[in-house]
Amino acid sequence: MALSMEMTWKCALVDVPFGGAKGGIVCNPKVLSIGELERLTRRYTYSLMPIIGPDKDIPAPDVNTNEQIMAWIMDTYSMNNGYCSPGIVTGKPLDVGGSLGRTDATGLGIAFTVENTIKKKKKSLKGLKVVIQGYGNVGSSVGNFLVRWVAGLLL
Predict the structure, then answer these.
(1) Computed over its alpha carbons, how large is the radius of gyration of the chain?
(2) pTM for this model (two decimals)
(3) Coil, helix or strand for 9?
(4) Residue 12: is its pLDDT beyond 90?
(5) Hey, what's the torsion of the CAs at 90, 91, 94, 100, to 10 degrees?
(6) Which of 22, 30, 121, 122 is labelled catalytic?
(7) Is the pLDDT reported for residue 155 higher than 60?
(8) How far apart are CA 148 and CA 154, in angstroms?
(9) 22 an active-site residue?
(10) Largest interatomic CA distance in the chain
(11) Position 154 pLDDT exceeds 70
């Protein structure tokens, strides 16, 4: 509930037309077969259809969600509306209307924030020690960008 509230405020403050809601299914997707995961995702999407849509609330990937799951959501929504609706979700693959760089975008933003904070304090990235809590999509991107900056591979 706290994350949902935070997302609602964030979206409202920067005037992003996403509702900010969060939801999910209590399960361990790592023990499900691809078929089970697809059926679960499609049924969940069908049940959400009255409250999601490009003009209502746009689901975005989060913990244990990937491009494939987002593509299934888009496909299920599209099939039930009778036309392709790529605007129904974010985080889908490029070949079905996804955005280039989306996977690393949040991590890059955090890495820029770290870099700018270090520069503001008139310090150097060289020799900097950073602790990253969590090494999922965001944490791994932050770590990769900071390592490359320190090595002088990205400026």
Answers:
(1) 18
(2) 0.78
(3) helix
(4) no
(5) 90
(6) 22
(7) no
(8) 6
(9) yes
(10) 57
(11) no
